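User: Please run a holo structure prediction.
Assistant: Happy to. Please share the sequence and the ligand.
User: Here you go; the ligand is 2'-deoxyguanosine-5'-monophosphate.
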Amino acid sequence: MECIFCKIVDGKTEGEVLLQDKYVCAFRDINPAAPSHILIVPNEHLTSIEALSPDKIKLAGRLLLAVKDVARLEGISQTGYRVITNTGADSHQEVQHLHIHVLGGAPMKHGLG
Ligand code: DGP
């Protein structure tokens, strides 16, 4: 079965792509947990942070810097945002394609639970 995030990266599904370049793609979460809830994924299928290795350092750096780009596009750079990357079973990672959640647009609860 094809990965849903690979389909979005490849433009095979409807998805509001905010940003895409050589390394990453950013689009709105289908089930937003905040007024602004964006997912940033590598174009390449990697299951999680656990699949990153030193030869992926440019991709890893781009993933992190894309957070800033997304925050700027969403107008939340100054008000703040939370960045989460679920990794593996204990985190309840549902989609097995590395993704960074960027959440903002309203004050959040304290703590990370
Ligand atoms: P996680 O639990 O970290 O694996 O979160 C996966 C997120 O992916 C979840 O917040 C919902 C989102 N999601 C799942 N399927 C789709 C989809 O088909 N399109 C979009 N845009 N988001 C999806």
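The chain has one domain: 4-104.
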